Amino acid sequence: MQNDYLEDLKNNKVATVVLLFFFVVSFAEIIAEYFENKLLVWMTKPLILPLLLFYYLKRSKKVSPFFVIALIASWIANMLFIQNTIDFIFYGVLFFIIYRILIIYIIVNKVKMPNSIPLILGATPFIFLYTIVTLYTYDILGDNVYLFLFQGVFTIFLGGFSLGNYIMVSSKPNTILLISTMLMTFNQFIFLLKLYWTEVNVLQATAMLLFVFGQFLLTKYMFYTEKNKQRLEIINNLREEL
Asked: What is the model's pTM?
């Protein structure tokens, strides 16, 4: 028992140091994006998600293999996005869709909605946003609009599920999940703003800021749901013993 406590304490200390490095490296990457320092981007961006993954592995009481694979898929997508060419962006979007599908799978299995009404209500504002954005950018996106809409389907579902879940139960984990989803959604819209705004470096830095905090909050959500699950298991065990 004491050994387990000491092991947890050691893991928490290591996780705290890793988390500090995560934010330091992320801040450096955001600055690099703003000043368009490609060398610094290549030095920092590849480290962000591996550090977050290491932090998750050290802090998690019950590691989700799907979340690990999702972070790896997101990391690959970000590496492809650095190239900033049509082909690399296309494959990057595909890996990001894999990431989205895995996150949706994880969340749907953690939350059980009584019916589809909260999902429909929650998805409505996201559908509205995607419709408006698509109408305004259709001519510029061209054939790429279909890829944008395809990944939009997963974003709308995740956004609707998160908002609907929050409407039903406005708990801390649900609040964190909703904020994370909103940050990642606006991160996607910033990509389209680049088509209209000349200050691309500002948008790129903002996109990374939203991405970093969106991913971090999603990881925090995983921790909170682990705690809730552990509490339910303890309660159920006590009931069985009684």
From this structure: 0.88
pLDDT band at residue 221 using 50, 70 and 90 as cut-offs = very high
Enter the tokens of residue 191: 């990509």
Contact between 165 and 111 under an 8 Å Cβ cutoff? The reply is yes
User: Within 13 Å and on the Cβ side, how many CA atoms surround 129?
Assistant: 19
Q: Say how far apart CA 77 and CA 151 lie, in whole Å.
A: 13
Separation of alpha carbons 128 and 223, rounded Å: 32
Taking alpha carbons only, the member of 203, 224, 113 closest to residue 167 is: 113
Cβ–Cβ < 8 Å for 95, 70: no
**Mean pLDDT, residues 7-19:** 82
Q: How many CB atoms lie within 10 A of CB 161?
A: 22
**Do the Cβ atoms of 154 and 170 come closer than 8 Å?**
no
First-residue to last-residue Cα distance in the chain: 24
> DSSP assignment, residue 198?
S
The whole-angstrom separation of Cα 102 and Cα 49 is: 16
Residue pLDDT, tens place only, 146-195: 777 888 899 999 999 999 989 888 889 999 999 999 999 998 888 777 76
- pLDDT recorded at residue 83: 79
Please name which of 194, 199, 201 lies closest in space to residue 35, comparing C-alpha atoms. 201
CA torsion, ordered 136, 137, 140, 141, to nearest 10 deg: -150
Cα(123)–Cα(114) distance, integer angstroms: 16
